[in-house]
Specification:
By secondary structure, the protein is α+β, with helices and mostly antiparallel strands. It has 4 domains: 1-81 and 145-218 and 313-373, FAD/NAD(P)-binding domain; 87-141 and 220-307, 2-Layer Sandwich (D-Amino Acid Oxidase, Chain A, domain 2), CATH 3.30.9; 377-460, Orthogonal Bundle (Arc Repressor Mutant, subunit A); 475-504, no CATH class. Helices cover 30% and strands 23% of the residues. The strands form 6 sheets. Strands 1, 2, 9, 10, 11, 12, 19 and 20 form an 8-stranded mixed beta sheet that branches. Strands 13, 15, 16, 17 and 18 form a 5-stranded antiparallel beta sheet that branches. Strands 6-7-5-14 form a 4-stranded mixed beta sheet. Helix 1 (11-20) runs parallel beside helix 5, helix 1 (11-20) crosses helix 8 and helix 10 crosses helix 12. The radius of gyration is 25 Å and the shape is globular.
Length: 504
């Protein structure tokens, strides 16, 4: 029997699993998908919010402020890209400047440090491409950007290194209450756990309803995005919001930690928890709203569009509490924005709730907070590159030309704890396929490397989900001719102008 089962390997569930790995408890992290970070974590704005806009006293306000302050250390420990570029909320009228002042006062109440209200001249000093209509802004220097899937992958790697067991492709079919815990039925096995932490994202209500009557409903909300090429990455320097409305924080424009430019999200109610398609209307909506904020956005440099789903509830706040009908079953639900920003503090909050139920937890003396660093080859010095290639020639072979990713990097992330087994798994970990061609050049080579390193057939390599196959069978046989050795036997020859040419 496990002490604790954590359901859901998004950024929140992974933070919780890593936090629990600091203690002498037996923990299992259960994920229904083929990899970690495959849900909301994979498709979001990647923003570490300053924390000024949440209603004071709510879990969102409390945990955003606490979580934001933890990112520097946790990202350093886990070798994850993170930058405090600051955030701006831009006003386009004197009326909206009154909203800016209200946000500032709310930020003070939420204990957000070093905020400042900027006039137009001060705003232009920070963002030269800001709209001519902009009159001022709220500036929060603690706002930042992070790699959300890199963070989640690193959290899981570190959690597994510290004793957590990871179960992928493990969709939960039923949960039954026992006298001493819970029986969790998966497709191919059953496991027992004394306590359950439900961090199942969009499906947290479904999981909760297996052990209790319905007390909340997760409402999916779709956000569409445009990702621009790195040549557009310097068009803005900060995370730039428009003044918030009753519909949310609006379309955001921001640089990414890898040098791209990101635009989004839209806010659309959808009928199902699988509606992740992009639409023409969504793209038009993004452009219309973005051009209100920033001048001369180079839409001809958009390299891909994508969408993600946020898990909302009618209450508008996070749900983090023990179920009233199922003792020892803790819901961590409705974690929409600023869930990523709050995630480190959510994990500590959940462990404190668990302490209140199970009693004090014994800390490990050998907990290692750091994982093996992943340093992109192209960021090494010339001397370090030479040394890496001497040790392993695979680092001298470029696989992804757009992002300059080597075979050595891909092999590394395949063989790590919770390593890549899919094309998108490699993409999330090593960025092969993230560039202009979106895997058009490197995709087949990545598949070959996965098949070779994991000793599987190339037809078994999938894009992401277990059923998302790419190849099914060979469509024709290919013969390779060695012209020097096999010309006489494998091909006819014909003399033309004193030279021989193979007729193949």
């Amino acid at each position: 029997m496990y002490d604790i089962a954590v359901i859901g390997a998004g950024v929140v569930g992974s933070f919780i699993a890593r936090e629990l790995s600091k203690y002498n408890v037996k923990v299992v992290l259960i994920e229904k998908e083929n990899d970690v970070a495959n849900g909301t974590t994979k498709a979001n704005s990647a923003i570490v919010h300053g924390g000024y806009d949440a209603t004071p006293g709510t879990l969102k306000a409390i945990l955003n402020a606490k979580g934001n302050a933890k990112f520097d250390q946790v990202c350093k420990d886990l070798s994850v890209p993170f930058k405090r570029v600051g955030s701006l909320v831009v006003a386009f009228s004197e009326e909206e400047m009154e909203t800016i002042k209200s946000l500032y006062e709310r930020g003070i109440e939420n204990n957000i440090p070093n905020m400042k209200i900027l006039n137009r001249e001060e705003l232009l000093q920070k963002e030269s491409n800001i709209s001519d209509e902009a009159v001022g802004a709220l500036y929060a220097p603690t706002g930042g950007i992070v790699g959300p899937w890199e963070l989640t992958i690193a959290l899981v790697e570190n959690a597994v290194e510290n004793g957590v067991e990871l179960k992928l492709n493990s969709e939960i079919e039923n949960i039954q209450r026992l006298e001493d815990g819970y029986l969790i039925s998966l497709a191919e096995e059953e496991i027992k756990a004394k306590y359950v932490i439900n961090a199942a994202g969009l499906f947290a209500d479904k999981i909760h309803n297996m052990v209790s009557s319905s007390t909340f409903e997760i409402i999916p909300n779709r956000g569409q995005y445009n990702l621009f090429d790195k040549s557009a990455g310097n068009h803005v320097n900060s995370v730039i919001f428009q003044c918030p409305t009753k519909h949310g924080k609006g379309v955001v424009i921001l640089p990414t930690v890898h040098g791209n430019l990101l635009l989004g999200p839209t806010a659309e109610a959808v009928d199902t928890k699988e509606s992740i398609e992009t639409t023409g209307d969504g793209t038009q909506n993004l452009r219309q709203h973005a051009e209100k904020t920033i001048k001369n956005l180079p839409f001809n440099k958009v390299i891909t569009s994508f969408s993600g789903l946020r898990a909302k509830t009618s209450s508008g706040d996070f749900i983090i509490e023990e179920s009233k009908e199922a003792k020892g079953f803790i819901n961590v639900a409705a974690i929409d924005s600023p869930g990523l920003s709050a995630a480190p503090a959510i994990a500590e909050h959940v462990v404190n709730i668990l302490r209140g139920i199970a009693g004090e937890l014994e800390g490990k003396t050998d907990f290692n907070p750091a994982r093996k660093p992943f340093v992109p080859f192209m960021e090494l010095s010339d001397e370090e590159k030479t040394e890496a290639i001497k040790k392993d020639p695979k680092y001298g072979r470029i696989i992804c030309r757009c992002e300059n990713i080597t075979e050595g990097e891909i092999v590394d992330i395949i063989h790590r704890k919770a390593g890549a087994t899919t094309v998108d798994g490699v993409k999330k970990r090593a960025r092969a396929g993230m560039g202009r061609c979106q895997g058009g050049f490197c995709g087949p080579r990545v598949m070959e490397i996965i098949a070779r390193e994991l000793n599987m057939k190339i037809t078994e390599v999938v894009k992401d989900k277990k059923t998302a196959y790419i190849l099914t069978k060979e469509t024709k046989q290919k013969k390779v001719y060695d012209i020097t050795d096999k010309l006489q036997t494998e091909a006819k020859k014909e003399e033309v102008g004193g030279k021989y040419y193979a007729k193949l």
